[in-house]
Amino acid sequence: MRITMVGSGYVGLVSGVCFADFGHDVICVDKVEAKIEALKNGVIPIYEPGLDALVESNYKAGRLSFSTDLAAAVKDADVVFIAVGTPSRRGDGHADLSYVHAAAREIAQASTGFTVVVTKSTVPVGTGDEVERVIREANPEADIAVVSNPEFLREGAAIDDFKRPDRIVIGTTDERAIEVMKEVYRPLSLNAAPLFFCERRTSELIKYAGNAFLAMKITFINEIADLCERVGADVQKVAKGIGMDKRIGEKFLHAGPGYGGSCFPKDTLALVKTAQDFESPMRLIETTVAINDNRKRAMARKVIAACGGSVRGKKIAILGLTFKPNTDDMREAPSISIIQALQDNGAEVHAYDPEGMEAARDLLGPVNYGQDAYSISEKADALVLVTEWDAFRALDFRRLKATMNNPLLVDLRNVYPKTEVTRHGFEYHGVGRAGGDA
Ligand code: UGA
């Protein structure tokens, strides 16, 4: 199959490279010339484990190419994926579809023969109909079927998620498009990845409903964690105890500082707006959004309380800045609100993150960056673990205690058992672990 990816950002690049790895001929297109030039030279614009090697091998094998020329890349394609950005529109939280529409227009003008146009970008319900309208308007002669095929990739695990998905959702009722999409995903269905066909609007909603449900699940366990702290229970055991019920499931029940990233915050907000527009408000998700927003600053209050009620003039060491490990993505990261609140309360913040410091520099106020956990902890009054990178999972507490001003660990990801930390003379504060340890 000849596949063209319009948009070589996170989703477009990962999906394009993986399709190429499965043997398809893939062209990744982007308007940003510098990005395309960099990709041709093997420079990957994002941090995603394993992506660079996969780009290199498929580029060398000739199955993967990069271009800024959308028309040429679309002309002979069997399938064109739209994987451009859909940021939250300033002011109202709706997804901004201008890039999607612009791509659809250009594709319509360039396509020849039967072409399947697939929206992979996360788009609100009804966008497929709108894309179809834009295409018909731009080129009434075009022989195009518009399909929805949402992605379910997690940053940091995207290649594995692509190659071993729980399901592949394909929204179309067009028989020719169904056959083409089966062919596109044949290599994965050989891996027993189930293809789930449904109507286009249903497929579009599955993406939002899935992310909103996961965001709600995290928010639920975060509230249970707060209650655990009041009643003397252990949230990790509560999560395990309920997660063993297959109807609930054990995943996405890790209490922490609130969800961040480029997906959950944006998609929950967009779903809330869509639901309001259709006069079918989603109060559960509205509340989820509000609770999660409050939680980030509440984590700063937790640190302040652990420091005896004030951080004024104190040195606080922050371990981990990105919204989760194995990414350099700082979007909506809890660390941003936490650091801001600590600084508002007079703290001097020192921080370290394996991949996120470059992006953090543009987002955060005055922060002193170090080169590891130990350098930022020198003379610190508290160490706060915000993102659970592997590199932070076996800290040398003896070494930390020797250099810190006050041996205090606030573990916002519950990485450590309390006893392991306290036996080194540390004071330990986890999330929702009043009653337990392991
Ligand atoms: C999420 C979904 O998991 C993907 O399926 C989806 O494709 C993607 O959004 C998207 O829409 O593109 P991602 O944002 O990369 O993926 O990251 P997650 O692993 O889902 O984590 C999101 C946030 O939730 C992080 O801040 C993480 O720390 C937090 N989280 C996750 C928790 O606090 N507790 C958990 O148990 C799980």
Question: What descriptors fit this protein?
Answer:
Rossmann fold, binds uridine-5'-diphosphate-glucuronic acid, alpha/beta, 2 domains, 13% strand, 6-stranded parallel beta sheet, 14 strands, 45% helix, 438 residues
Largest sheet: 6 strands, parallel
The parts where pLDDT drops under 50 for at least 5 residues are none
The backbone outline, from C-alpha atoms, is elongated
Question: How would you name the CATH homologous superfamily of the largest domain?
Answer: NAD(P)-binding Rossmann-like Domain
* Percent range of helical residues: 40-55%
Structural class: alpha/beta
**Beta-strand content:** 5-15%
How does the SSE layout of this entry go?
Blueprint: E1 2-6, H1 10-21, E2 25-29, H2 33-40, H3 51-60, E3 64-67, H4 70-75, E4 79-82, H5 98-110, E5 115-119, H6 127-138, E6 144-148, H7 158-163, E7 168-171, H8 175-184, H9 186-189, E8 195-198, H10 200-231, H11 235-243, H12 264-277, H13 283-306, E9 315-319, H14 334-344, E10 348-352, H15 357-363, E11 368-369, H16 373-377, E12 382-385, H17 397-403, E13 408-411, H18 418-422, E14 427-429
Parallel strand pairs: 1-2, 1-4, 2-3, 4-5, 5-6, 7-8, 9-10, 9-12, 10-11, 12-13, 13-14
Helix pairs in contact: 1-3, 5-6, 10-11, 10-12, 10-13, 12-13, 13-14
Uridine-5'-diphosphate-glucuronic acid is lined by residues 122, 151-155, 211, 214, 218, 252-254, 256, 259-261, 263-264, 267, 323-324.
